[in-house]
Structure formats: C-alpha cells, structure tokens
Specification:
Layout (H helix, E strand, L loop, with lengths): L1 H25 L3 H27 L4 H24 L4 H29 L8
Length: about 120
C-alpha cells in the first residue's frame, strides 16, 4: 500500500507543478495567476471533503449534491479561464490535462489512505 500512496503523491505533485509553473509563466497578470491557483485549490478541497465524508460514512444526498455542484462550477471556471487566457491551443490542453492529473492524484491519494486505514482480517482477531 505504501507504493500506491507514493504513486498518488507523485501524480498529484506532477500535475500541480505542471499546472502552476506553466500558468505562472503564461499569465502576465497576477490576478490571472491567483485565479488559476484558486481554481486548483477549490477543486482539490472538494475532492478532499467529499472523500473524507465518504470515509466517515456520514454523507447524505444534499451534501453530495453540493459537492457535485461545486466541482462542476470549478471545472466551468477552469474552462472559462483557459478560454480567455492568452494561450495557444496546445497550452490550454496541457493545463487542462495537468488540472485533471492533479485532481485524480488527490482522489487516488485519499482512496489509498482510506484503504490503508482499514483493518485487515488479522487485525480484527
């Protein structure tokens, strides 16, 4: 399980670094840099909160709906930001892929930690 946690951290960090370093150099204004950082942090926070509540087993339909709505709004903000940014088509695709890689790494990290926290059959004896 330690290998899957390490791979999840690696996926998340590579995605975040590509996303942040690339957009830091591509966006000329500080407001654009903050915008994309806010989109990344919001997306990662939604994944973290949702997986934490799933782990606790205290998730209900309204909370799941709010998480889905915030995740869709975050993706929409990312797409609008990339559409209006002074980037080439290849850069837009690369930053979208880096965002998805970072979010996937966050999800896999939470999932791997959830699996390592579960007791095995030997522990319950």
């Amino acid at each position: 399980m330690k290998r899957s946690v390490l791979i999840s951290w690696l996926i998340m960090l590579v995605g975040a670094l590509i996303y942040l370093i690339g957009l830091w150099q591509a966006c000329p204004l500080l407001s654009g840099k903050g915008y994309f950082l806010g989109v990344l942090v919001t997306g990662m926070f939604v994944i973290y909160v949702y997986r934490r509540e799933v782990k606790r087993g205290s998730i209900d339909g309204s909370f799941a709906s709010v998480c889905q709505m915030v995740a869709l709004m975050t993706c929409g903000l990312l797409l609008v930001g990339l559409w209006n940014a002074p980037l080439s088509l290849v850069e837009r695709g690369a930053y979208l892929a880096a965002f998805c890689l970072c979010i996937s790494g966050q999800y896999l990290l939470m999932r791997a930690r959830e699996l390592t926290d579960q007791p095995t059959g030997i522990d319950t004896l």
